[in-house]
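Readers outside the structure-tokenisation community will struggle with the description of the input data as it stands. Showing the layout once, in full, would remove most of the difficulty. For illustration, here is how one protein appears when written out as sequence plus structure tokens:
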Amino acid sequence: MISFEHLEVRYGPTVALKGLTLDVEDGVVGLLGPNGAGKSTLLKALLGLLRPSAGAGQVLGVDLRAPEAAGLRARIGYMPEYDALIEDCSAFEQVAFWGELSGLRAEASRDRAHEVLHFVGLDESRYRNVSGYSTGMRQRVKLAQALVHSPELIFLDEPTNGLDPEGRKRMLDLVLKVRAELGTSVILASHLLEDVERVADQLIILDKGEIKAAGSMAGLRKMLARRFELRFLDPLTPEQEAKLPELGEVLHSRNGLMDIELPVADPILAFKWAQDAGATLVQLTPRHDRLDEVLIRALHGSPIPKSAEGRA
């Protein structure tokens, strides 16, 4: 769906994206990172709104540097982070207008505006001026305009921005509905862990313009699952405890249970260590990381390979 190699974007002397290389499969992809990580810059570069300073990229098989790259915008929907709605126009007028800007004929654009406003749950309010809309309704108008021209791929930049818990749930349900019912691939940029965890089947973690980790959600968790809970038959002696750094880093120890991060993928080595140290290991339980732990480890912890399965 998307491929880029050594992609770099600069704002004058500032490097916003630093040589990104990644292949992204279709589906729902979470682009996760703190504010200022480069998420919006990456989306704009993939849309052709920012010209890469170096490197190469393809979106839906089209080279970003090719003359026909501008035509990608007819195949991609974009929901921006910031509100740019026309206050004294109705949702229907605006979505139909944006449909024409995306290349639809006027009549087809009006028909599609009715369809997508119904899809996002605004059919009964579509003739009201958006100046009277709630934040959640305004976000759904933005989603409708991203969908009006039946794109193959949509970019959603902080789609739950400013929403209360109920509004966030409704928006994320719509994201899942877009994929399930329309078959449209989604790139969702967010700094909210819960949003990405709820809807994404793939994850890209970006920070300071660099990819810190990328892969399937399940693959990343499996790759990062190096924490194990160990129980020994008898308390370790001081001499045995002194040898624990040979096994891994002790993260927590209480009531005979020890939480250890192993630097190797093979937990069987823990039994070999116990045998060599003269201890009896009776329990070894894997501890899988939650998404917030994945993010923290990627941003501040031990190095993580760029992909759990070779691709995002």
About this structure: Residues 302-310 have pLDDT under 50 and may be disordered. The longest strand covers residues 14-24.
